[in-house]
Structures are given as structure tokens and as C-alpha cells.
């Protein structure tokens, strides 16, 4: 006995001397939360759509057994014990109920052969269901029963459930037969996430729903498609909707569903609308059926336009005043992004490689979008243009956009791999003024920042353009040429050179405007696309104003 006692005393003495015993309790609780957040299941339920996976409950017990003080602190923190899993035993559920001190629960529920859908599990039978406010339902790969767990789980939770997440593992895509979640019962759902592999757009009425996320994968069986009447019906049943995110769920419009005969759906509270991986025609048809407020933020990512003709864009939602505009083109990707104090629009296109270089479709689409955004661009003061080796975008776009930007003050132009001489010639041709009565492109321009990664051996076109603008009364006061990490300052003839901000230091994740997060999920596109959304891969724009 004595060796065991001395071993216990030694372990307790060492634990009491560890630095964790001297940390403030608030910091220790933050460490607990960080450990739990980082510890996820090795295979998330639906990693393709970035849905949240259940935390490993074992990690909570691991950190509470490091030393006596950590265990004491953890037991006194009720919020650590508010996440339940359907695999937990009755004794474990009882322990969490005891330590959670009446706080609301988040429950992860998995259906399958190990957990039949008609069997009431301890996680539901041992607690008051009114405490369950967030529910994650995962239909496992070995579950072939085409119904949601209505009677025992969803229906009792309808009066109190705030957040519901419905996903399915793997590629088995048998959907439920009844597109209703609560079967006509009243609900107070605030956030809803569902995969089209689980259920088509539900027909329930959601009076309190503020955040909606729909996901689908485009398989041949149609599980990733959503019929336009079903989508519009769902939106009509969400009068309080604030954010809508539709990712990889192809909206189907065909001859049976006429846009002209569809009633307009009013979403007066909607502040963010985000489509990801969608055809241009389907987006425009859907937008034409929605009545949105002018302060809405549109994020339309990976828009697919696979035609070699200019799109017939008849309408776009009215937007508020815009102050920043960005145009970028790289390979088959190109986008237009604009923002103002309260509203913004971000069109990101994915086109066919042959189409772009055969017919300059990217420039036609961007110019068409600019024409439709024209009334909202009157106050734009900052324009950023980024492109790959094809410098004709500078000339064609600036010449066409100049009349729409009467207050443009700052222009930033960048190219990662354009030839230096071609770049200089294109920029000079785009901004050179014409003799009266011809107009001067961007007459109010005061700052010009040029960023390239290949040296410009011949600056004559740029210098001649600056001289001509100064001679005709439209000088550019500040000009900065950045070549890789080496800057060359060119003072314009009519004013002194003033140093500008470094355009290489911008981090898109810290953008105060586009960093849109709900209490349940962020509204950013997947990380794999972010390397080019903000210009060519090495271009990190500064939020210069």
C-alpha cells in the first residue's frame, strides 16, 4: 500500500506545481473550448459542404483528467457539458444533464442500423426535450429508410428547436418521401441547413427562419438539383429570412416553369444572398422572381457561363450606392465585385477556356454587368483591375466603364504574368485623353498604382499618357509602379509624388465588408477558390480608398 500512496502523493505534488494551476480560470475555460473545437471526428458527416461535425466527447474527459484543478474548473463550467451525441450511454447522458445546469443542448443524431430510427435513444429519453435547441441529423451510408425521424424526435422538438442541420453521408441519395419536416406543426426554427441528398425543399411554413443553407451535389440521379417552383415556394414560406446560401444545388428552369407567370417573392429582410456553382441563366431567372431591398449583398460565386455570345441580362436587383469596384480575370475565371456603405455585389464567373479566348466572352459579360449596375456606380471612387497575360481587358473595360464612373479617384491595375511592354502600351492606350471634343477616360482620376511581376523595360506609353493628361487639364497627381517587391515612383508632371499604401499586405479574411458570418456558419466560398477570387494568386490587394 505504501508505494501506491507515495506514488499518488508525488503525482499530486507535481500536478500542483504545473503552470496550469496558476492560470486564471477564464483562460483555462477558453483552453477547454479550443481543445474541443479542434478535436473533430476524423470523417465529418459531409466534408464536401463544410457542415459542422460533432466534437469528440472523449477530448472533454481527457482534459479534465490532467489534474485536479482542471477537473474542478471543468465541472463548474456548464457550457462544456451541453453537447450530446446519439452514441452516448444513459449514464453518460445523465452526467451531462447534471453538469449542464439547465443550459440548452446541442444534439448530434445519427440514423442507421446501429441506431434504428424507431428506437428512442437515451439522449432523447433521459432529458427534457425542451432543452434541445440545436439538432444535427446525419443519415448514415447504411440507412435506407426514406423517412426523417418525425414522430420520436422532430415533432416533439418543433416548439423549441432553433437550429436544424440535415445531412447524409456518402453518395447514397435516396431522398425522403415526404418533403415536410414538422408535418404542419408550428415551429420557431431560426436556422436550417439541409442537403438535397436528404430531402427536397420542405413545404413547412417557417415564420422565424432567418438563416437558410441548401446544399447539393450534381449527380446523374438529380439529387443535386432543385426545381425552381420548390425553391420559390420555400422562400415564400420564410418571411423573416436574412441570409440565403445555395451551394452546388442546380436550380432547374425549363419550359414548364415560366418566369413571366411566377409570382414575385418578397424578401424584405434579406441582407445576404449567396449562390455557389450555378448557371448564369438560372441565377438571373431566380433573381427576377425576388423582390429584394436595395441594401442586400449579392455573392454569386462560380457562375457558369458556357456560351460564346453576350448574355441577355434584362434585370438585376436594385442596389444601394457603391463606392468600390473590382474587376479580375485569370484563365477561365473572372469576376466583378462592388461594395458600398450598406450593399454590395460580387459576380464570379467560371467559363469555358475556348470560349473566352475565342470571343472575349469574359469582357462582354463583365461589360454587360457593368451596364446593369450603372445607376449604382455613380459614387465609385476606387477601381481595381487584375488580369493574367491578356492585357486587352484594360483597354476594353476602362474605355467602356469610364462614363459610368464619373467620380473615380483611385485606380489600381495589376498583372502577374503580362509582358511588360504590352502592359505599358495597354495602360497608356486605356487612359490617354483624346483631343477635344473627344472625352478623357476617367477625368477625375488622381491616384494610379501599377503592380506587375515582370519588369517594364519601356515606360514611354505610360509617360506619354501622363504628359497628355496634364496638358489637357486632367493630370494624375500620384503614380506608383510596383515590380515584384521593388517600387519605382514616377511623379506626374503636374503634381508631387505622394507615397501610397502597400498593396501586397491585404488579407481577405479580415475584410470588414465581405466577412459575413451568421451565428451558425460563415458565408465565404470554399477555401479552395479563395486563391484567385481576389485577383491573381500572388496579388494581395490593399483595401485602399
TrEMBL record:
This is Uncharacterized protein. It comes from Dichomitus squalens.
Amino acid at each position: 500500500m505504501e508505494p501506491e500512496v507515495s506514488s499518488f502523493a508525488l503525482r499530486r505534488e507535481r500536478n500542483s506545481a504545473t503552470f496550469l494551476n496558476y492560470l486564471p480560470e477564464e483562460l483555462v475555460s477558453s483552453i477547454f473550448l479550443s481543445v474541443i473545437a479542434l478535436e473533430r471526428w476524423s470523417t465529418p458527416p459531409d466534408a464536401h459542404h463544410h457542415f459542422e461535425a460533432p466534437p469528440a466527447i472523449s477530448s472533454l474527459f481527457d482534459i479534465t483528467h490532467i489534474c485536479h484543478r482542471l477537473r474542478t474548473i471543468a465541472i463548474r463550467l456548464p457550457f462544456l457539458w451541453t453537447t450530446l451525441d446519439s452514441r452516448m450511454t444513459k449514464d453518460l447522458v445523465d452526467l451531462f444533464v447534471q453538469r449542464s445546469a439547465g443550459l440548452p443542448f446541442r444534439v448530434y443524431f445519427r440514423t442507421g442500423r446501429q441506431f434504428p430510427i424507431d428506437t428512442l435513444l437515451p439522449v432523447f429519453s433521459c432529458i427534457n426535450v425542451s432543452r434541445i435547441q440545436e439538432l444535427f441529423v446525419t443519415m448514415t451510408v447504411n440507412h435506407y429508410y426514406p423517412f426523417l425521424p418525425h414522430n420520436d424526435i422532430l415533432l416533439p422538438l418543433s416548439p423549441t428547436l432553433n437550429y436544424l442541420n440535415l445531412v447524409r453521408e456518402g453518395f447514397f441519395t435516396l431522398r425522403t418521401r415526404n418533403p415536410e419536416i414538422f408535418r404542419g406543426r408550428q415551429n420557431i426554427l431560426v436556422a436550417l441547413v439541409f442537403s438535397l441528398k436528404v430531402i427536397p425543399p420542405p413545404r413547412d411554413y417557417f415564420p422565424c427562419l432567418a438563416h437558410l443553407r441548401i446544399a447539393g451535389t450534381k449527380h446523374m440521379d438529380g439529387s443535386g438539383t432543385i426545381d425552381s417552383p420548390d425553391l420559390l415556394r420555400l422562400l415564400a414560406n420564410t418571411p423573416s429570412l436574412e441570409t440565403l446560401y445555395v451551394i452546388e444545388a442546380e436550380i432547374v428552369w425549363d419550359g414548364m416553369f415560366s418566369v413571366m407567370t411566377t409570382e414575385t417573392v418578397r424578401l424584405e429582410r434579406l441582407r445576404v444572398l449567396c449562390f455557389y456553382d450555378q448557371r448564369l441563366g438560372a441565377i438571373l431567372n431566380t433573381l427576377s422572381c425576388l423582390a429584394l431591398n436595395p441594401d442586400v449583398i449579392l455573392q454569386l460565386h462560380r457562375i457558369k457561363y458556357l456560351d460564346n455570345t453576350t448574355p441577355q441580362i434584362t434585370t438585376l436587383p436594385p442596389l444601394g450606392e457603391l463606392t468600390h469596384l473590382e474587376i479580375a480575370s485569370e484563365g477561365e475565371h473572372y469576376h466583378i465585385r462592388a461594395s458600398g456603405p450598406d450593399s454590395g455585389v460580387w459576380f464570379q464567373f467560371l467559363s469555358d477556356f475556348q470560349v473566352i479566348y475565342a470571343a472575349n466572352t469574359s469582357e462582354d459579360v463583365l461589360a454587360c454587368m457593368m451596364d446593369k449596375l450603372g445607376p449604382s456606380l455613380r459614387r465609385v471612387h476606387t477601381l481595381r483591375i487584375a488580369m493574367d497575360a491578356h492585357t486587352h481587358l484594360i483597354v476594353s473595360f476602362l474605355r467602356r466603364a469610364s462614363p459610368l464612373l464619373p467620380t473615380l479617384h483611385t485606380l489600381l491595375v495589376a498583372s502577374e504574368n503580362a509582358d511588360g511592354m504590352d502592359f505599358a502600351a495597354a495602360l497608356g492606350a486605356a487612359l490617354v485623353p483624346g483631343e477635344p471634343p473627344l472625352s478623357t477616360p476617367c477625368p477625375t482620376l488622381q491616384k494610379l498604382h501599377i503592380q506587375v511581376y515582370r519588369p517594364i523595360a519601356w515606360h514611354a506609353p505610360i509617360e506619354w499618357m501622363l504628359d497628355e493628361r496634364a496638358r489637357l487639364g486632367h493630370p494624375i497627381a500620384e503614380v506608383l509602379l510596383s515590380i515584384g517587391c521593388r517600387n519605382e515612383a514616377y511623379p506626374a508632371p503636374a503634381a508631387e509624388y505622394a507615397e501610397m499604401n502597400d498593396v501586397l499586405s491585404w488579407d481577405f479574411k479580415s475584410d470588414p465588408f465581405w466577412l459575413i458570418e451568421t451565428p451558425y456558419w460563415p458565408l465565404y466560398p470554399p477555401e479552395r477558390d479563395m486563391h484567385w477570387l481576389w485577383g491573381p494568386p500572388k496579388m494581395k490587394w490593399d483595401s485602399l480608398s
